[in-house]
Write a structure and sequence with these properties.
It contains 6 helices and 20 strands. With 280 residues, it is α+β, with helices and mostly antiparallel strands. It folds into 2 domains: 77 residues, no CATH class; 199 residues, no CATH class. The protein has a 6-stranded mixed β-sheet with strand order 6-7-10-11-9-8. Strands 2-3-1-4-15 form a 5-stranded mixed β-sheet, covered by helices on one side. Strands 17-18-5-19 form a 4-stranded antiparallel β-sheet. It starts with a strand and ends with a strand.
Length: 280
Amino acid sequence: MKATLVIPSICAVDIPVEAFDALMDIYPQGERIDIKDIQYWGTRLPATDPRATAVIDILKKHNLKPWGEGIRARFEREYSKKDLTDAPYLSPQFARSFGAYEERNEDGLLKKHAQDIQPKSLIGGSWGGAVFIALELKALIEDEDFLGAKIQRIELTGMPSKATEGKFRELTSTITLPPMSPRMAFFASAGAGEIQEVDADYPKPSILREGRDLPEILVDIPALHYSKSDLADMPAFDIALTYEQFGQNKPHTVFSQRFYQFCLQHKLPIGWIPVQIVEL
């Protein structure tokens, strides 16, 4: 896995002079001059490069928020094939989006607007956390007998077409994971200004952040962290739901390496992030 610290640009007039000079001293290649002769500094450094650590230390020293006014710092990750095949569990990033919002009816079935359904997709996910599968894929999944898999009907609202009416199901699970490692942090997603950390049971939509040292630095797609001992106490599973409800206040889905290989076999358009198993 390759990680890169990315800071697109910091304007010299937005931070203290001594902080800007210190950043320039660490990585002078980041300098550029705009047409009005105002200095900007930016960087793309491997996270393992000592200069990346030094940049973060400068932001801390000068109490500069790395996701605040004038600064947009983030980590980008690139996973190798080996990273993915070595991971016991992975979380998905679906290439096909089925919209943002859904709710449950009194029978627990997912209610989804028909216009959000992607009729030519075999699988997709919503920003709200649900996973949708076409009937064709439903049959293949049932043949594999994945542990924890639960497939149920969807109640479509609006004006379903022939291509969507009765053609899709929700893929969910009967198994809930334990709370994530304390390595993870959750922040209220509403409002601006000071970032407010909340607990895993926060009843409103929240933003998942990774790391405790400087959680305001966003990881483009955070990896989920679980305690090794907590997972050891779990029953075997191929599909499970997170205990936490983040994003649009819905649980997210974690899949096993077996399910990942199934998706590769059927060339399903999904990006994957290895789940990190840690001691705490």
